[in-house]
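Protocol step 4 of 5: obtain the predicted structure for the target chain.
Materials: sequence only (see below). No template structures provided, no constraints applied. The aim of this step is simply to have a reference model before the mutagenesis design in step 5. Sequence pasted as it appears in the construct record:
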Amino acid sequence: MEINHTLAIMTFYPFDWGLLWRIVLIVALLGCSALTSGSETALFSLSPSQLDRIRKHHTPVNRAIMKLLSNQDRLLATILIVNNLVNILIISLCNNLIDRLVEFHSTGWEFTIKTVVVTFVLLLFGEIIPKVYASYNPSGFSRLVALPLGFLTRFLHPLSFVLVKYSDAIQNRGIIQPENISMEELENALEITENPSETEKEMLSGIVQFASTEVEEIMHPRMEIVAIDEEENFDEVRKVIIESGFSRIPVYKGSIDHIVGMLYVKDMLRHVGRDSSFEWNKLLRPAFYTPEHKKINELLEEFQTQKVHIAIVVDEYGSTLGLVSLEDILEEIVGEISDESDAPEEKPYKQIAEDTYLFEAKANIAILEEVLELEEGTFDDCRGEAETIAGMLLEAKKEFLKKGDKFSFHSVEFVVTKATGHHAEEIKIRKS
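Step 4 output (structure tokens):
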């Protein structure tokens, strides 16, 4: 055989173009290994909110994801079978390819190339990189692998069935002792449980998340607070009470950052006939304050001991961030609580032309995607941590929004049509 180049430790043979198919096959199998490894991380890293959005959008891919997660043992067994088979094929093909290209004169170098280098490449491109990427984008990665993985679970069902049954038998014999279930695991279990009704699942999920939810997640933000200046006359106070319909209203001095007390409407019932000069601010009760990062289970306990139903949420500097009530806390468990005084919920948008809408700036991005019939998660690459349309535009502009500001993401045009101060109120959205 003709020798192209000779070294003391190895001999290189001329490249045979007949080996090209082996190289292509190795690259393809490496891609399969990456997808399989990443799918495990992606599917088991989906948060409850992501699972909820997937469940609500009935697309073939989303249905495939939910079906895969409905039997996690079978899914994991399938992933392990495919991943191991693919990795064995890659190692075998790589060794064969190296033998056809190189003749080693040193056992040490042969071990280094065939074992260390091949293993490093396999771990880097077939395990580490895809798993890191999948952990940062579990929703997108899950959609990428859902359909092929669904086919593989059916195709490999006999093998995965045996593995699952064998592992169950080991666990039932006490060889594997189950660990304590974490709150996250319990939450994920509730998400894929089929027996309870939707209402029961929402309540159970609310109970699981209750201890980890912070006040800032459920509070009414500062701009939504209905408050009264202590300098207002009694006529204005009566007007605010009637228009708001609230039974407890914060009262401030100068600005809403300086809350001086809470006005209980029931305390004013016997004074309702007084004239505008009535000194209503003498009826104020002390305001109750709570930090933004307090857990709501702790706040509920404080409400019970202090016998109050409402608290002003403040930041570390004492500025008012929002307001939270006992009803807000209870709604985290039992869902929305409505009474006869609550007005019917209005849609946060209206259609003004074909594919053109006026949205409230505070509307959720998920609602926007649903209305425009876009794939769920379309704006994930530009929304950052924002949940609202205004938040997404702020993330893009990096400064306060003004009337007339224009943006375009994924063939969707956004125009701020109404803004007050630093706060956007209405946005025109057109799907190109």
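Step 4 remarks: Residues 215-334 form a domain with the CBS-domain fold (CATH 3.10.580.10). Confidence is low (pLDDT under 50) at residues 1-7.
Proceed to step 5.
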